[in-house]
Amino acid sequence: MLTGIPVWMVIKGDDLAAGYPNTQQESWLRIVFGNDPMIVNLSKPGNYSGSMVATFEYEIALHKPKYALIHCGTTDAVLGVPNEEFAFNVDALVAMANRQGTEAIICIPPLVKNINIEERLKGYRDILRSCDDVILCDFYEIIDDDDNLSILEFGDELYFDGVYMNAEGHRRLAKIFNEHYAPLFFE
User: Fold this and answer.
1) Nearest to 28 by CA among 17, 36, 39
2) What whole-number distance in Å separates Cα of residue 111 and Cα of residue 132?
3) How far is 27 from 16, CA to CA, in rounded Å?
């Protein structure tokens, strides 16, 4: 990790952004960005919105990125974080990025097959979609053009355990990002 050197993007996220349960090499973010030293992925398994708040402002000030990709929700849902707390944490993360002149990108978590966790994620997705002054990267509703299917219509072949995506799930997320969101950042 480059310390104290301005970078293009800082990624702060939960298990999905860290590639869990796969290797970091198989994560959708690594597939999209490779080993680009201008992209700093500070995500780690176990991160949730509250733990991300604790260090985010310092990390943004240290790296001075143009963009901060914030990827949270799945671990919060597993932990049962109340909607009000999740909303407070997300608002704090966006405000921290804005104070540093960094543009926030919010990733909307994809569908999970666990009914209880998916029910909690529905509320989180509404909270994330209501954020002001952010770029939204919605992995829940987007269409995969090759199959003409939304990610909602895929079966268990994308999941490790019904909550976390396997290598194929990460490959699909990378493809969706590259087709629908990368054009917003790369010319």
Assistant:
1) 17
2) 23
3) 8
Alpha-carbon span 12 to 63, nearest angstrom: 12
Give the whole-angstrom CA distance, residue 94 versus residue 72.
Answer: 12
- Residue 91 Cα distances to 33, 41, 50, 80, 86, angstroms: 26, 20, 11, 18, 9
Distance, CA of 39 to CA of 60 (rounded, Å): 12
User: Cα separation of 52 and 44, whole Å?
Assistant: 10
Token look-up 């143009």 returns 66
Each residue's pLDDT, cut to its tens digit, for the chain (187 residues) gives 445 567 899 999 998 898 888 877 788 999 998 888 899 999 989 999 999 999 999 999 999 999 999 999 999 999 999 999 999 999 999 999 999 999 999 999 988 888 899 999 999 999 999 998 899 998 887 654 555 555 555 567 777 887 888 888 888 889 888 888 888 776 5
Q: What is the pTM of this model?
A: 0.88
Structure tokens at 42: 């500070």
> Smallest Cα–Cα separation from 155: which of 139, 166, 146?
166
Point out which residues pair with 70 in neighbouring strands. 12, 106
